[in-house]
């Protein structure tokens, strides 16, 4: 269903996560439409810089003197199976603080939603052929501690100013992303290496993790190799 923009709160629970969301959404949008799903690991930038100090020079070459709290790392191409099956097979390494996915979908306005044969195998063809169909791109992001955010871009209103944000845009997709995480203990971090903002964020995440415990890349259950993505932060 195409959401009503007036009903959405353009807000983010976690400003650092929202910054990562905007960055990923813009990066994916720059490649145009008709893309396959794209999966990202979110890694604390401070951890990456501690392991690879040379990355700071790369940030500065891009005009970034103060890197963001999270760096998105794009993963391997996803297998050609239903998205829910892909996500069900994924587990993340301990360094991964969160993840994001960009996926394109066809939706219909609310006024014709009742006509859609939801339980029929013909539903995808029905939606694809409907004259009121709308093509959208969802970018969903989550952190291990449960923080989440989502962006929606319509192909018919393809501009940065028309992008919608809100946790209620794709609750099912956000929950599926959260389920890709398994429990782990946070590694000790030398907070002297972090910015003030990163210290605050890390403290919030650890506090939340105390109530519910849950290197970049993911593993697929049917492939127990190291599973590291080959993508890049941006």
Summarize the structure in short.
With 234 residues, the chain is α+β, with helices and mostly antiparallel strands. The protein is 30% helix and 21% strand.
Q: Could you tell me the number of beta strands?
A: 8
Kindly report the spatial arrangement of strands forming the biggest sheet: 2-1-4-5-6-7
Estimated structural class? alpha+beta
**Please, how many helices?**
8
Tell me the radius of gyration. Answer: 18 Å
Query: How many domains make up the 3D coordinates?
Result: 1
Mean pLDDT across every amino acid position: 79
Largest sheet descriptor: 6 strands, antiparallel
Order of helices and strands: HEHHEHEEHHEEEHHE
Poorly predicted regions: 1-12, 211-215, 222-232
Shape: elongated
In words, what does this structure look like?
This protein is α+β, with helices and mostly antiparallel strands and 234 residues long. The protein has one domain (5-212). Helix content is 30%, strand content 21%. It has helices at 15-29, 45-51, 55-61, 83-88, 110-113, 123-129, 171-178, 196-211; strands at 38-44, 70-74, 90-92, 96-107, 134-143, 148-154, 164-165, 218-220. It has a 6-stranded antiparallel β-sheet with strand order 2-1-4-5-6-7. A two-stranded antiparallel sheet has the order 3-8. It starts with 14 loop residues before the first helix and ends in a 14-residue tail after the last strand. The relative contact order is 0.22.
């Amino acid at each position: 269903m195409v959401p009503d923009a007036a009903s959405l709160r353009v807000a983010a629970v976690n400003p650092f996560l929202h910054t990562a969301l905007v960055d990923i959404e813009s990066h994916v949008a720059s490649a145009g439409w008709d893309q396959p799903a794209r999966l990202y690991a979110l890694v604390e930038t401070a951890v990456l810089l501690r392991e690879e100090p040379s990355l700071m020079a790369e940030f500065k070459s891009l005009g970034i003197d103060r890197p963001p709290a999270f760096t998105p790392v794009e993963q391997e191409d996803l297998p050609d199976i239903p998205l829910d099956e892909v996500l069900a097979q994924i587990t993340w390494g301990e360094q991964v603080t969160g993840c994001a996915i960009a996926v394109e979908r066809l939706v219909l306005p609310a006024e014709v939603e009742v006509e859609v044969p939801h339980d029929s195998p013909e539903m995808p063809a029905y939606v694809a052929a409907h004259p009121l169909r709308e093509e959208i791109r969802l970018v969903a992001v989550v952190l291990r501690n449960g923080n989440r955010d989502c962006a929606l871009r319509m192909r018919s209103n393809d501009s940065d100013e028309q992008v919608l944000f809100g946790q209620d845009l794709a609750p099912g997709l956000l929950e599926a992303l959260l389920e890709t995480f398994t429990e782990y203990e946070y590694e000790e971090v030398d907070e002297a290496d972090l910015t003030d903002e990163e210290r605050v964020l890390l403290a919030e995440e650890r506090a939340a993790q105390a109530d519910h415990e849950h290197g970049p890349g993911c593993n697929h259950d049917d492939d127990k190799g190291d599973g590291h993505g080959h993508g890049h932060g941006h």
